[in-house]
Amino acid sequence: MDLITIDTWADAQPHDYRPDLESGNVLFFPATPFSLPEATKELLRSLDFSGTAVHKNIAYRPASDRITGVDAGAEEQLRAVFKDYSRNVVRFAADLLPDYAKKWKLDYASFRPLEEQGRDLPTNKRNDLMHTDAFPSRPVHGNLILRIFTNIHPTKSRVWVTSDPFTKVAERYAKDAGLDDLAAEAASTMGRLRGQTVHAMSGLGLPIADRSAYDRFMLRFHEYLKRNEEYQRDWASYRFEFPPGSTWLVFTDVVPHSVHSGQHALEQTIIVARDSMADPEKAPVSILQRLCGKPLLGQAAW
Ligand SMILES: [Fe+2]
Fold it and tell me: What does pTM read for this prediction?
């Protein structure tokens, strides 16, 4: 996998970056490629995350203009700040990736305020162990997780280590992680009935995650990789330092990644429709379906 550096993208000829991302590369901008005022960065860096007033992460939902993880007194100001950030980063991403933008769905924006090095977290929540992303509360039904990160620390780089992309990792480990059993269960009469029931309940507005077999596998694989000592030891291959002010884009379900150090990162997540890919056969769900020979998607949520 490669870091594809884009120094002067505003001046560049239009280029289709989809194949680069879908193959498991990282698009890297040494300078922030969208408007991000210094006052915004200073405000976010000055927030006090040591007490109980604010939580460990701020999350903003662009679709509903809601913010969580902040104390009531700061809510109005921070919501305005995040609304502005989210709008600017999404506009930039839509200019960069217009073929995705036609169908994508905006997910959360977030701010990660804590130093990543030395955090004391349970295994499944550790960021310094290599993993592919999956969201327990927001199933993607075979679509992809595109994340745009910006390091807003004034002096420190954010250090990532990644491994070969999903296709290689899945070939080696997906069956060990239980892919065949999960696919067989989902294809069984009981499995299909359960899927239809959950889908119907979710459609009625009940608070239940309508996960496809693919979503369930990806949640399982996230934890499997973090707990696999051989994978953690032998597969870490590529180390990247993202300096202050830089921005990078990556499919975090295609690229296994781990964060080793760094503080103060802004991030916007976007769910990219599989059928807007340059090559939908490179989607993790396509790779897994080939490996197990069974469908992993039931009734699509969108
Ligand atoms: Fe991650």
Answer: 0.92
